[in-house]
Amino acid sequence: MTRTFVFATIKPIKNVIIYDNKYMSIETIKQLGLSDNEAKVYVASLELGQATVQELGKKAKVKRTTVYTTIEGLKEKGLLAETKKGKKTLFIAQNPEALLAISEKRLAEIKKVLPELKSIYNAGDKEKPKLKFFEGKEGYLAVYKNILKENPKELLAISSYESWLKHVDLEFEEKWTQQRIKQGMFLRWLDFKTKATAKRAKEGKKGLREIRFLPDKFAFSSTIFIYEGKIGLMSGKAKDFMAVIIENQEFYQTFKQFFEMLFLFAKS
């Protein structure tokens, strides 16, 4: 049997002193707020056990003038301890689980300021529309879940039911409709008259909806939902589902008035 051995040359990466997964460890540790030098010295200390300043600097490839301040930073963070052995001062890495404490502290600090940040976010420019884009199956599920979550007393829809069914199956529609009814959400719906929409129209109060029909000559493929200061625009023609939810009071009022005008002249 002939065996073939393949040899590869690995080029050193500048400033990287740890190999294999240890380089990734340094990068991960830095995400907790440690400087590049602190991460290098800490990992070097884990490898060396007890070590002097000079040994840590050499192993971590950090300049001696910088090692002292780096060590102080690690001591303050609880990642390095100091001990004496004769006349020598040695430093010992603390259990890596101490990193969890740092992570938890940073998370607690973020949670502490989160209410204030949310307040600033909500007090931002109210005139500027907020847009959310959705696509694919998860996209339309997100749009319909958003409607149920907002739970408006009345939902307005300008729709092409036939096009809508290309993306949403009847089983999903039935479950969503039952949940809408359960929440007491009344649907006023403008569409084009087909067998399917005529059937829905006959359900009337049972379906907690009122459907009126637009002239066929104005037929389109998209669906528009108007609710709670939002407008949902959903494509019915595209191969893959696409939708945009726009949150803006001025746009909402404009679309709502547009709907009311059409609803007034549409046929039952």
UniProtKB/TrEMBL annotation:
SUPFAM superfamilies, A to Z: Winged helix' DNA-binding domain
Highest taxon, organism lineage: Bacteria
Domain spans labelled Transcription regulator TrmB N-terminal: 30-97
Coiled-coil regions listed in the entry: none
InterPro entries linked to this entry: TrmB-like, Tscrpt_reg_TrmB_N, WH-like_DNA-bd_sf, WH_DNA-bd_sf
Signal peptide: none
Listed name of the protein: Transcription regulator TrmB N-terminal domain-containing protein
